[in-house]
Amino acid sequence: MSELRLLGCAVLLNLGVAAVLGAGIARYMVETIPRIATVALTELVAEHAEIAANAGGIPEETAAATRAWARALENALRQVADRHGAVLLPIRGVAAGAPDLTAEVRAEIAHALAGGRVLAHGNVPAHGSVPAQDDVLADDHPATREERP
Q1: Residue 16's pLDDT is what?
Q2: Which helix or strand (DSSP H or E) is residue 84 part of?
Q3: pLDDT of residue 59
Q4: Structural domain boundaries of the chain?
Q5: Could you give the 3-state DSSP secondary structure of residue 56?
Q6: Residue 78: is its pLDDT beyond 90?
Q7: pLDDT of residue 15
Q8: Is-contact 50 126, C-beta < 8 A?
Q9: Which is the most buried residue in 6, 10, 74, 91, by most CB within 10 A?
């Protein structure tokens, strides 16, 4: 009888340890699984291409501005993803249900290209130009995460 009791205690102890480890692993996994969010990359690139085409500048200046825009896009995607703890996917790659963070990415790009100034409605300044006073928001960058009227 004592051997059966010892076996029962060992089984219960193993079940308890397995339950605690399972709960810990599940909790860790839930905390580290990132959310999925979308960004309209095609739209952002098309907007930039239109701005660059209409700028009518010297090809070298346009190329330099495009490189700066591409760096700003890469940094904006990284910052927005980190801020939301999300994996950003192109909007066309997600059927439904994921939040769209395009406006926030656009605002980050505008902030980077404006040299720290945030433009109204997330507008990207023309290459090398200084934004009009009406376009610059009075508040600093973090406030632009909220929609403006």
Answers
A1: 79
A2: helix 59-84
A3: 86
A4: 1-33, 35-145
A5: coil
A6: yes
A7: 79
A8: no
A9: 91
User: Does residue 72 surpass a pLDDT of 50?
Assistant: yes
Q: Say whether pLDDT at 28 is over 80.
A: no
The yes-or-no verdict on residue 130 having pLDDT over 80 is no
Dihedral over Cα of 51, 54, 57, 63: its sign:
positive
Cα–Cα distance for residue pair 124/133, rounded to 1 Å:
14
Q: Are 128 and 65 in contact (CB under 8 A)?
A: yes
pLDDT surpasses 60 at 46: yes
Q: Evaluate if residue 74 carries a pLDDT over 80.
A: yes
Q: Report the number of secondary-structure helices (H) and strands (E) in the chain.
A: 4, 2
124: amino acid identity, one letter: V
d(CA 3, CA 61): 85
Mapping DSSP onto H, E and C, the string for 85-129 reads CEEEEEHHHCCCCCCECHHHHHHHHHHHHCCCCCEHHHCCCCCCC
Measured CA to CA, the distance from residue 34 to residue 19 in angstroms comes to: 25
**Residue 124: how many CB atoms within 10 A of its CB?**
21
d(CA 103, CA 105): 5
